[in-house]
Amino acid sequence: MTRRKLVAGNWKMHGSLAQLAELDGIAAAARANRRVDVAICPPFTLIGAAAMRGDLAIGAQDCHQNAKGAHTGCVSAEMLKEAGASLAIVGHSERRTDQRESNEDVCAKARAAIGAGLIAIVCVGETEAERDAGRAVAVVEAQLQGSIPAGAKAAELVVAYEPVWAIGTGRTPTTGDVAAMHAAIRAKLGALLGAEADAVRILYGGSVKPSNAAELMTVANVDGALVGGASLTAADFVPIIEAAA
Ligand code: PEP
C-alpha cells in the first residue's frame, strides 16, 4: 500500500504575525514537492491569518470536544474549520501532561475534529521510564485503544508516534525501534479499524531535523513526520519536506 507522506509542523506556543512570513517559503516547497502533503499548525490566534496567506494546509494544535457551549477559553473544531483549518492535532503529550487529557478526552476531541470535517492527528507515545521498563508497545497500544474513534476512516485520521523522551531533546529512537513501534501501531490499527488501517498514515515525531529526516523517512510504516522546533523556519522545515518527497 502506498501512502502519501505528510509533513506537519507544530509551532506550539510560538509565532507571531511577523513569523507568518516563514509560510511563504514553506508553501513554495509544498508546491515544488507535490508528492508530499504539508501542513503547519500555528497557535489558535494565527490560524485565520495563516489560512488567508496562501494555499498551505493549516491545522490547530487542539480542539474542544463540544461544538459550542459554556467552555471559557476553549475553541471548537467547527470554529477552527471556519477559521480556515483543515487539520487538528489532538492528544499531544504536552497536553496529556499539562492539561491531564485522558485517552477518553483525546478520543472525544478526535471525534469532534472529524465530525467538523478536519483531519485528526492523534498523538501517542511512551515516556522514557515506560520504555526502560519494556512497556513502550503496551503503553502505545493502550493509548490507541482509548484514543482512536471507532469507525474512523483513513482519509480523516492520522496517527503520530511521538516518544515523549524524544520531543525537544535532540534524541531519537534507533530506526529499528521506530520500525518496530510503527509496525505495532499498524497492527493495532488493524485490530481497531480493520482493512481501513492499511491506508492510515503514521507519522514519526520527536527531534526530527534536516540531518535525520531522510533516514527516518525510509523506515517502513513511517508515512511522514510531525515536527516541532524545526518547523518554525522555512530554512529548517523545507529540507524535511524535501526528505519526505
Ligand atoms: C512535537 O512537539 O510534536 C515535536 C515533535 O517536537 P520536536 O520536533 O521539537 O521534538
UniProtKB/TrEMBL annotation:
It catalyses: L-erythrulose 1-phosphate = D-erythrulose 4-phosphate; D-glyceraldehyde 3-phosphate = dihydroxyacetone phosphate. The keyword Cell inner membrane does not apply. SUPFAM superfamilies: Triosephosphate isomerase (TIM). Its EC number is 5.3.1.1. GO terms for biological process: gluconeogenesis; glyceraldehyde-3-phosphate biosynthetic process; glycerol catabolic process; glycolytic process. It holds the Pfam family TIM. It is an enzyme of class 5 (isomerase). GO terms for molecular function: triose-phosphate isomerase activity. GO terms for cellular component: cytosol. Pathway: Carbohydrate metabolism; erythritol degradation; Carbohydrate degradation; glycolysis; D-glyceraldehyde 3-phosphate from glycerone phosphate: step 1/1; Carbohydrate biosynthesis; gluconeogenesis. Substrate binds at residues 10-12, 168, 207, 228-229. Its main location: cytoplasm. Keywords: Cytoplasm, Gluconeogenesis, Glycolysis, Isomerase. Gene3D superfamilies: Aldolase class I. The active site is at residues 92, 162. It is found in: Cytoplasm. Involved in the gluconeogenesis. Catalyzes stereospecifically the conversion of dihydroxyacetone phosphate (DHAP) to D-glyceraldehyde-3-phosphate (G3P). Homodimer. Belongs to the triosephosphate isomerase family. This is Triosephosphate isomerase. It comes from Sphingomonas horti.
